[in-house]
Structure of Lycopene cyclase domain-containing protein:
Amino acid sequence: MTYTALSGIAVVVALVLDLAVVRTRVVLTRQWWISYAISLAGQLAVNGWLTGRRIVTYDGAAILGTNHQQFLGDWRICYAPVEDIGFGFALILVTVVSWRWWAARDAGTQ
């Protein structure tokens, strides 16, 4: 399975968890999108540094675009493949959803 497919699956699973399974509906709030934008800026900075220096590399057959290093374009943002944004989104969303769900459960409102 390609990195692209896994990234897409991760995003779908995270959204289903938020909207249908746990029903925290985090992604429907303005607060989420502001927080995510801040997190995304940090993610792009770290990913850019790691991939731009070739500390982390990707198989060109497993990602969109090619394995050619460039800052922007060819399905890359800040040197990292766009799939990293999907994985980052899913990881952050699952963390926030879990945190909210556990907090509500501990408070006895779930």
